[in-house]
């Protein structure tokens, strides 16, 4: 099992992104035969109702996570909430899921996004290079 710092977390739902401000967080690659990951987000109490609704409906959600540092490309996970704990001023959300490789390669998503904006030629290349450095958030289709 390998453990990493969870640097940022966003929940992607209904063509929008909900940023989860982290007080702390961990990403654990279980390195099992199912390629399972655990993501723990220690965040603020005001997000309890948001996560509790998802948890009570037993829904799968896609999350965008940056691991270790801001400059890293985001990884996308198909997850379910397996634990939701409430503390005085914080909550702990434990997500279990799998890395999405089929449509989640950041460079592919970025290129598709730029092509949809109508960029081509040198403008496409320049914008692609700039965005690969800054790594803006992208929408991912469920």
Overview of the molecule:
The two termini are 28 Å apart. This protein has a 6-stranded antiparallel barrel. Strand 5 and strand 6 form a beta hairpin. The relative contact order is 0.19. It has 142 residues and is of the alpha+beta class. It has helices at 48-56, 106-116, 121-134, and strands at 2-13, 16-20, 22-29, 36-44, 60-67, 75-86, 90-99. The protein has 3 helices and 7 strands.
Indicate the topology:
Layout: E1 2-13, E2 16-20, E3 22-29, E4 36-44, H1 48-56, E5 60-67, E6 75-86, E7 90-99, H2 106-116, H3 121-134
Structural key phrases:
elongated, 142 residues, six-stranded antiparallel β-barrel, alpha+beta
Counted beta strands: 7
Shape: elongated
The helix-strand sequence is EEEEHEEEHH
Radius of gyration over alpha carbons? Answer: 16 Å
The number of distinct helices, counting runs of at least 4 residues, comes to 3
Q: Output the structural class.
A: alpha+beta
Please estimate the helix content: 10-25%
Which band does the percent of strand residues land in?
over 45%
- Placed side by side, the strands forming the largest sheet appear as 1-3-4-7-6-5
Largest sheet report = 6 strands, antiparallel, barrel
Please mark out the parts with pLDDT under 50 across 5 or more consecutive residues, or reply none. none
N-to-C span: 28 Å
- The average pLDDT value, as a whole number, equals 89
């Amino acid at each position: 099992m390998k453990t990493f710092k969870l640097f940022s977390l966003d929940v992607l739902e209904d063509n929008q992104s909900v940023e989860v401000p982290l007080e702390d967080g961990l990403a654990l690659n279980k390195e099992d035969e199912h390629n399972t990951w655990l993501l723990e987000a220690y965040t603020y109490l005001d997000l309890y109702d948001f996560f509790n609704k998802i948890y009570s409906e037993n829904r799968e959600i896609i999350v965008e996570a940056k691991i270790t540092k801001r400059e890293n490309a985001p990884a996308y996970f198909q997850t379910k909430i397996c634990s939701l704990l409430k503390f005085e001023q914080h909550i702990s959300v434990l997500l279990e899921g799998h890395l999405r490789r089929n449509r989640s390669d950041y460079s592919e998503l970025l290129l598709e996004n730029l092509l949809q904006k109508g960029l081509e030629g040198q403008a496409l290349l320049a914008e692609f290079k700039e965005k690969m450095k800054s790594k803006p958030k992208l929408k991912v289709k469920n």
